[in-house]
Design brief:
This is Metal-dependent enzyme of the double-stranded beta helix superfamily. It is built from five helices and nine strands. It has 187 residues and is of the alpha+beta class. It has one domain (3-186): Jelly Rolls, CATH 2.60.120. Helix 1 (3-14) runs antiparallel to helix 2.
Length: 187
């Protein structure tokens, strides 16, 4: 049994509804997975293929998903949340800066983001985001290989429930993309 199989088996054994214990247990298992020697064939293949995204495992019973991403240095992903889902990022190689934001509403009712801060997530480290947390990512040392563990299929969640929120820069502020009118409507 390789380290990826052990990861899946251990996460299945601790899985349950969102709780501090489940999140900590999954994070601990990702910490172990990050220590996998690059000589294990599945990890060596990930490094060699350097795919932008590759599904590593999808649990048919519990619904959690483990993805691997290879990101080039400089890649920036604007602020977003994960809807009703929670996620753990685990950096296997490289370094990612992750900013966190608070969603605030102006007196006129417009929503914008206020940046709380940022942290650098280095190889061997993980970062947890719970439902409603807003963050961005910026690859500052790459190519970076990171795992993204999600408690549900976020693409399906976004397509069906439209619960994920993405933000765009407008007038110097990050605002919900849904709050922005298309350019052709502004003229």
């Amino acid at each position: 049994m390789n380290s990826l199989d052990r990861f899946v088996e251990r996460v299945q054994s601790i899985w349950g509804p969102l709780s501090s214990e489940v999140v900590a247990g999954c994070q601990q298992q990702l910490d172990v997975l990050l220590k996998t020697p690059v000589t294990e064939p599945w990890l060596a293949d990930l490094h060699q293929q350097a795919s932008a995204q590759q599904e590593m495992y999808r649990d048919p019973v519990n619904g959690f998903v483990l993805l691997a991403h290879t990101e080039p240095e400089g890649l920036y992903r604007p602020p977003h949340d994960h809807g009703r889902g929670w996620v753990i990022y685990a950096v296997q190689h490289g370094e990612i800066e992750m900013g966190t934001y608070a969603r605030v509403q102006d007196p006129d009712g417009k929503v914008k983001l206020v940046k709380r801060g940022s942290s650098r997530v280095r190889a061997g480290q993980t970062q947890v985001y719970l439902p409603g947390d807003i963050h961005d990512t910026h690859c500052i040392s790459g190519p970076a290989l990171l795992f993204r563990f999600t408690e549900r299929d976020l693409k399906k969640e976004d397509k069906e429930a439209r619960k994920l929120t993405r933000y765009v820069k407008q007038g110097g502020d990050w605002v919900p993309a849904s709050q922005c009118a298309p350019e052709w409507l502004k003229s």
